[in-house]
Amino acid sequence: MSIQSIKEGDYEGIRGEIRKVLKQPQYDDGSAGPVFVRLAWHASGNFSLVEHNGGSNGAGMRFAPESTDPANAGLTHAIDFLMPIQAANPWISHSDLWTLAGITAIEAAGGPRVPWQPGRTDYTSAAAAEEHRGQVGDRLPDGAKGADHIREVFSRMGFTDQEIVALSGAHALGRCHPDRSGFDGPWVVNPTRFSNQYYKLLLTRKWVPRQWDGPFQYETTVAGTKLMMLPTDMALIEDEKFRPWVEKYAKDQDLFFKDFSLAFGKLLELGVDRDDTGFAKLVKKAAEEGKPLDKVKMAGWGCPFAGTGPRGRDAKL
Ligand code: HEM
């Protein structure tokens, strides 16, 4: 596999380079895709509507305290897999590359195309990150908790119950690692294929507490493979407002793909406030400037670069 230098602004070309590093026969289930998706989600999921800080812009996870946050354990694997692409293409920001890797992985795994725009900029140093990003720690969800916790965490980002259930379907990909989260195992039999299996299994299998000396989790066995659910996954069928969406997505994969694509696209945009150059500058906490909450962009945009800077005009999306 040889990584190429791609013409500046050619994001379709970068997707091609990301596809080259997806296959990792020695790693987990043979794919870097799941950990790319988790990187994109954790990079974005510390956004707060109230404080208007956090989010993927800046790629703050390269620096402590985010880099050492136990919630992000294992994401260095994803960052390392992407490093050769970054090295060959220093024009792309880490924050654009990480988010683009997440959506490229989903599509390559058979999932939907997720709307995505470039323009994120990176903190240039740990000191810059410390000065600009604010207190963004302790904002990611804890898998050991229940429905109230999930709602609290995701409503801080501006997500509805329906969107929370749609986003959770990403657990069709990948697995839990005892040396990262402490939890263990995949959610589905084929964890490198994006599908609505997660919802089907939640509804149709008998999930029982696993007897082991690790954290409390649920298990079942399908075709000889041990599968798992976190307490937060089970909350989606226990909670009366979440459950109808699990039932809808279990029945209708197209609906799941459509809703997932919009919600994931929205997640990756949180806190990315582009100016008229098409770039999202790193300004001192927007909250301090009294930035109105409706500045948060939603999915369904056009190209932000139309008629703007040279990189913008050249951008191939
Ligand atoms: C209630 C919300 C959530 C909780 C509590 C949660 C928790 C977890 C935990 C504990 C792991 C295992 C980490 C490890 O041991 O390596 C994990 C993995 C994963 N999560 Fe979530 N998650 C949540 C939401 C999401 C969302 C919104 C997405 C993306 C849209 C996502 C995508 C993934 C993926 C793809 C993996 C597998 C990573 C890998 O295989 O390395 N999760 N999650």
Automatic annotation (TrEMBL):
Task: Give start and end of each Plant heme peroxidase family profile domain.
Answer: 92-291
**Is Transit peptide one of the keywords?**
no
Enzyme Commission number(s) from the entry:
1.11.1.-
Which PROSITE patterns is this protein grouped with? PEROXIDASE_1, PEROXIDASE_2, PEROXIDASE_4
GO MF, one term, reads:
heme binding
User: Is Iron one of the keywords UniProt gives this record?
Assistant: yes
The similarity annotation says: Belongs to the peroxidase family. Cytochrome c peroxidase subfamily.
Name of the molecule in the record = Peroxidase
Organism for this UniProt entry: Tremella mesenterica (Jelly fungus)
